Model the fold of this input.
Amino acid sequence: MFQKILIANRGEIACRVIDTARKLGVRTVAVYSDADRASRHVAMADEAVHIGGPAPRDSYLRGDAIIEAALNSGAQAIHPGYGFLSENPGFVDAVHAAGLAFIGPSADAIRKMGLKDAAKALMEQAGVPVVPGYHGDNQEPGYLAGQADAIGYPVLIKAVAGGGGKGMRLVERSSEFAEALKSAQGEAATAFGNAAVLIEKYIQQPRHIEVQVFGDGTRAVHLFERDCSLQRRHQKVIEEAPAPGMTAEMRRAMGAAAVRAAEAIGYSGAGTIEFIVDGSNGLRPDGFWFMEMNTRLQVEHPVTELITGVDLVEWQLRVASGEGLPATQDQLSIRGHAFEARLYAEDVPAGFLPATGTLSHLRFPDHARIETGVRPGDTISPWYDPMIAKVVTHGATRAIALRALEAALVDTEVAGSVTNVDFLIALTRHAGFGRGEVDTGLIGRDLEALVEAAEPDPRSKALAVLGLAGLDDPRVRGGMTLWQPLRRTIAWEGGEAVLEVLGAGVARVSVDGNTHQIGYEGGRWWVDGSPRASRIVNHAAGTSVFGGRSLTLSPLDPLARGGAETGGGLTLSPMPGLVKAVFVEPGQEVATGDRLAILEAMKMEHTLTAARDGRVAEVLARAGEQVEAGAPLIRLEEEVDA
Ligand code: ADP
Ligand code: ADP
Ligand code: MG
Done:
């Protein structure tokens, strides 16, 4: 086994590799860009080397700088993760030339699978079924149009160098072919520096089923299949293993084809053979075709780990350091069912726009496997993939694992950026998905309803108003003293509401033209007579409501927050911090603008002042005390109408 390895990646996959290396007693070297100085993967590694600017081409794609870092730090091998340099054969050659091991396949195997057209030709020779279509050299538009006509519409145009769904166009009829070809070639030229395309029959009601393989350079085994049919625009959203409806006969056929594919190129390490499957008539052993091979560890590898009990990164390290295959085919079996959901910083209602932000609050459930590269306070920067985490669950049956996924997502709390968590929750509740009726068109067909079900609702907003007023937890927050009858206007960035507290744990919130009755009973919130799974959380960037249909309200100005909301005479801590001094005591008269207390937060001192004239009723904080955002500090007596 290696003593020390360098991980040429960032984010969750770098952290994932470090976890297993540590388990095996292997020391780790991280590399990082300017944007990642304070990242989780850097903190986790034994050593870290700065390799350049935030743009990938200035850091994570700089093979020379990465190899130099490995040599200088005494690492014996490089793990590439996925993306970046993981499927770059030139990098693999350079790693070997430097006398280092590459934790992955040979450069030759990567080259053979690197271009989709050549890979298809090779697989045909190896007796692996491929999608019918044209994958030859002639790129003349008229010729390609003729091929498309011969294949029969609909067809799919694919960039031969493509990946991540780029350079791909579905063409429904002949008249649309020329236009689609031009745009696919343009996109391919920009993204991959290679405009060449292939044309495939578009499989109706397609399912994406892939087989995990593992080779030692000569022989290979498979670790069964994953179903990745839940996609949006050819990008995976939720993956599972095994595939719903899979038969023993089909699994044997697909596994054998995948092993044949891996052995045909002398594959070493973890790889994935992706197949497109005709799902229109149940799964049949003659209804699957090779699409491409991903010559690396796949994003969704954890679902395979959970059903097989194999640590694929451990296998990668063992085989790359010279051991044989850790198991024979007979020793591998499937236990239960697993799901993975990809949690992204993205604005779903705005068309799944990638988002950025500083995660002012981040909490994951402990009843799921979480793969993440971020911690509370970390930033999702515009430089990289906006994935926040992978939420992975396992259960004895598909139904149990799916309910576990739903529960894990409901218990996930992210503030500081919008996320797709509620879209993912809506998917776990989709009836067809629940029945295992998956195909790559499912999300597209029901997109409107799924997005609608993921939008924050007025009841979440009403609860968030309580949070802004510091009434987020009736059990602890200042006891019930805060829940005294009052009526005040609460304003935030983009809206306002009228809050009436009627008694302990009972309130009314009027917002957006509706009035909601709120209660707290039996350890949960009730809105308009129905119980909610919602949790109200105050954090540095405002108040969030989690537990489905999440939303965050940001105070108008963090420092004006106490002043803006003291209709009830309450001064709240505008942010988490340390109370440095309190200048008033109960019974004392104060005038508007008088100093009440000093709070130290974000390395600065903030003076909190009285928003109106009055007499101090209660001092709820002491100097030296650490307080949360929204914590009540000082309460003035009720105003008496003159
Ligand atoms: P997976 O099935 O593992 O999700 P994807 O094709 O979605 O495979 O790619 C996973 C990650 O690898 C993407 O998020 C992206 O960062 C990276 N990636 C894949 N292919 C390419 C490519 N051709 N160019 C750049 N990055 C890629
Ligand atoms: P990428 O390299 O971008 O991952 P793939 O060839 O793996 O490209 O295809 C990505 C996705 O496009 C598949 O998961 C599937 O949803 C869809 N797809 C690919 N080929 C076909 C096909 N022939 N018929 C129907 N859908 C397809
Ligand atoms: Mg693919």
Observations:
- The pocket of adenosine-5'-diphosphate (ligand 1) is lined by residues 82-83, 163-164, 236, 294, 298-299, 385 (CB under 6 Å).
